[in-house]
Amino acid sequence: MSFLSSMDISASALTAQRMRMDVISENIANADTTRTANGGPYRRRVVEMAEQPMTFSAALKQATGNGVTGGGVVVSRIVEDMSDFEYEYNPSHPDADENGYVAKPNVDIAEEIIDMMSATRSYEANVTALNATKSMAMKALEIGR
Questions:
Q1: Which of 39, 52, 142, 145 is the most exposed place for a label (fewest CB within 10 A)?
Q2: Whole-angstrom Cα distance, residue 106 to residue 115?
Q3: Using one digit for the tens of pLDDT, what is the confidence trace for 108-127?
Q4: Is 101 helix (H, G, I), strand (E, B) or coil?
Q5: What span, in angstroms and rounded, lies between the C-alpha atoms of 19 and 89?
Q6: pLDDT tens string 60-112
Q7: Do strands 73-80 and 101-104 pair parallel, antiparallel, or not at all (unpaired)?
């Protein structure tokens, strides 16, 4: 495995974790949104990640025993959390139903903050790995002098 592939793996992880942080931020921002373009309350979104598909050359190297499995991560899709909405009695609210209940988004702020902390730590770990790879490359260049 070359140091460039290590950098590619770290870069893919940084991109995926950044997307995760963006989605979490959107969830927090819409925690009180009771009306969306679809007509109902906002639904929490979750990022699903998958192993980055292997290129042909990587699969060939792996098949001949010269390669390493794995090649980073990619955001496979963003899905809506289909858990039930919370209902609050507020007959004066414009989005209240005929019984006076308002459907609130299924966003739990505490859960979102924990997810954000996890995404931040993952991002920081990948920055550290990227810096370590860069440092090794610089040391290799110094040896060549």
A1: 145
A2: 15
A3: 999 999 999 999 999 999 99
A4: strand
A5: 35
A6: 777 776 666 667 899 999 999 999 999 999 999 999 999 999 999 999 999 99
A7: unpaired
